[in-house]
Amino acid sequence: MMFYTYAHYTPDTKQLFYIGKGQRKRFKQSYARTTWWHNKVKKHGGFEAVILAYWKTEQEAFEHEKFLIALFKPQLVNLSSGGEGAAGVKRSKKACEAVSKALKGRPLTEERKKNISKALTGRKLDPVTAQKSRDHLEKIRQDQKKKVLCLTDGKVYESVTDASKQLGIDASSIVKVCKGKMKKAGKKEFTYV
After folding, report:
1. N or C: which end of the chain has fewer CB within 10 A?
2. Alpha-carbon distance 5 to 72, whole Å?
3. How confident is the model over 130-177, as pLDDT tens digits?
4. Is 110 a domain residue?
5. 5 with 68: CB under 8 angstroms?
């Protein structure tokens, strides 16, 4: 099995922001990425993935990854210096459930609200970015108002929000399934009506 090093670029400014090592389709995937990576992708409306080099061994790919991260570190969202991880590692069902439980329902306490507010106070977006942000939020609202069909059970819901509430599935996941970005949400398949 071949390994490779890859890069992620912002689609609008073509700025390099991430270096990684992978195999199969890892360079195109967005799961198991850091919050910083996801924030960058949201801000720029996606990412472009490019394979930089192929390697016969994982160790060679790790060495190249470390070299590239050291070279471009100031502009990257990589949290580590590279060269770690293992190919094909899969979490056990118990480990997946523990992670899921830890992330679900994290309460937005008053202290967290204050910290978020404090971090954002006085921060101004340039007019173009502010407009892009408003447009993006409006698009999300429109997507969540569309009627949706659950292909798994054949039930039609008045909106994505309605399906989310009734099924206990995250609305953004249902939208991603409807747009073909994910196969299933909550073990169910959906499409817009």
Report:
1. N
2. 14
3. 787 788 778 888 888 899 999 999 999 999 989 989 998 888 889 889
4. no
5. yes
How many structural domains compose the chain?
2
The closest alpha carbon to 49, from 73, 14, 2, belongs to 14
Cα separation, 116 vs 157, in Å, equals: 34
Assess if residue 70 is contained within a domain.
yes
Quote the CA–CA distance of 149 and 190 in Å, as a whole number.
6
Question: Where would I find the beta strands (DSSP E) of 60-193?
Answer: 148-150, 156-157, 190-192
CATH of the domain at 180: 1.10.10.10
**φ, ψ of residue 29 in degrees (nearest 5):** -90, 150
pLDDT tens, position by position, 47-69: 999 998 888 888 888 888 888 88
Q: Which residues contact 134 (CB under 8 A, 6 or more apart)?
A: none
Question: Domain range for residue 165?
Answer: 135-193
Whole-number Å distance between alpha carbons of 143 and 119: 29
Do 48 and 57 meet the contact criterion of CB atoms below 8 Å apart?
A: no
